[in-house]
Design brief:
Blueprint: H1 2-13, H2 20-23, E1 49-53, H3 57-69, E2 73-77, H4 80-90, E3 94-98, H5 106-114, E4 121-125, H6 131-139, E5 143-146, H7 151-169, E6 178-180, E7 184-187, E8 192-195, E9 198-199, H8 204-216, E10 221-222, H9 223-231, H10 240-253, E11 263-266, E12 270-273
Parallel strand pairs: 1-2, 1-3, 3-4, 4-5
Antiparallel strand pairs: 6-7, 7-8, 8-9, 10-12, 11-12
Length: 277
């Protein structure tokens, strides 16, 4: 019964639609060239709780409608104060959060959530690159979606993120369990990072990216390989995710991010991790 419901949910992701007065405001996202059947997180839609936060009532209604159509319980908030109250009261499995709002902005909400919870956070931003995304990652966001977006993209990204989080928790033992040198200690099994003896928090996506590169060192990984291996097919048209996260990861592990010691760029190809021991 669970598998049938899961398959039904995914079959409806691409079919999520909006009321007529909303449809003209959002452009349809490009769909994968081939139908790929992903695996759902092992939680039924009825058990899934999502908190959507945006001060724009139209966007908020669009998100509520999208999640509700696939049977997910949705809670909403129009500002930061409401968002925090809803978060503490409902303990959602996923938070979709606008970056810029009155009273308490999305970055501060994310920081407060991270004090007590590892629930995945998707940040909504009006800019495809720049300060908002970096601030969001610094605040603990796990992913970002650039406005405007359509409901099918939102659902697909949300499910991919939840599945990725669950996969990290149930990962099998790794051949290389710890990488260590004079600056870094990377515990690949328990997902911990120490930089000069101080524990540094990484989001699940940042940790998965770092582990992906370390386990394949000294090989060069193409940008497409990294995207597929870390994010999955749902992100096949989002190569910028790799560049943004690599830049942010360098700021967390490198002594000089502008002259990296660990994560090296191979122009026109991708990236590799240089072990220092």
């Amino acid at each position: 019964m669970m598998d049938n419901h899961s398959a039904s949910l995914f079959a409806r992701v691409g079919q999520a639609h909006l009321p007529g007065f909303l449809a003209s405001r959002f452009q349809p996202a490009a769909q994968p060239a081939e139908a790929i059947e992903p695996q759902l997180p092992k939680v039924s839609p009825q058990e899934m709780r999502v908190l959507v936060v945006d001060d724009d009532a139209v966007i908020r209604l669009m998100m509520e409608n999208a999640f509700s159509q696939v049977g997910v319980r949705v809670f909403s908030a129009a500002d930061g104060s409401q968002a925090l109250r809803q978060f503490y009261a409902q303990q959602p499995n996923l938070i979709v959060l606008d970056a810029v709002m009155p009273l308490v902005d999305g970055f501060e909400i994310c920081r407060r959530i991270r004090q007590t919870s590892d629930a995945p956070v998707i940040l909504l931003t009006a800019l495809a690159s720049g300060g908002q995304i970096v601030r969001g990652l610094d605040s603990g966001a796990d992913d970002f979606i650039v406005k405007p977006f359509n409901p099918a993209l939102l659902l697909t990204r949300s499910i991919a993120l939840l599945r990725r989080m669950q996969g990290e928790k149930s990962a099998l033992p790794r051949p290389l369990q710890v990488y260590q040198d004079d600056r870094l200690v990377i515990d690949l099994q328990d997902h911990k990072l120490l930089v000069e003896g101080q524990e540094i928090r990484l989001t699940p996506t940042e940790m998965k990216l770092l582990i992906y590169l370390v386990e394949r060192s000294p090989r060069v990984c193409t940008t497409r390989q990294i995207l597929d291996g870390v994010w999955g097919w749902e992100y096949q048209d989002s190569l910028e995710h790799v560049h943004v996260y690599i830049t942010h990861l360098r700021h967390k592990i490198e002594l000089d991010p502008e002259s990296p010691r660990y994560i090296q760029t191979e122009p026109g190809i991708g990236y590799r991790f240089d072990k220092q021991n």
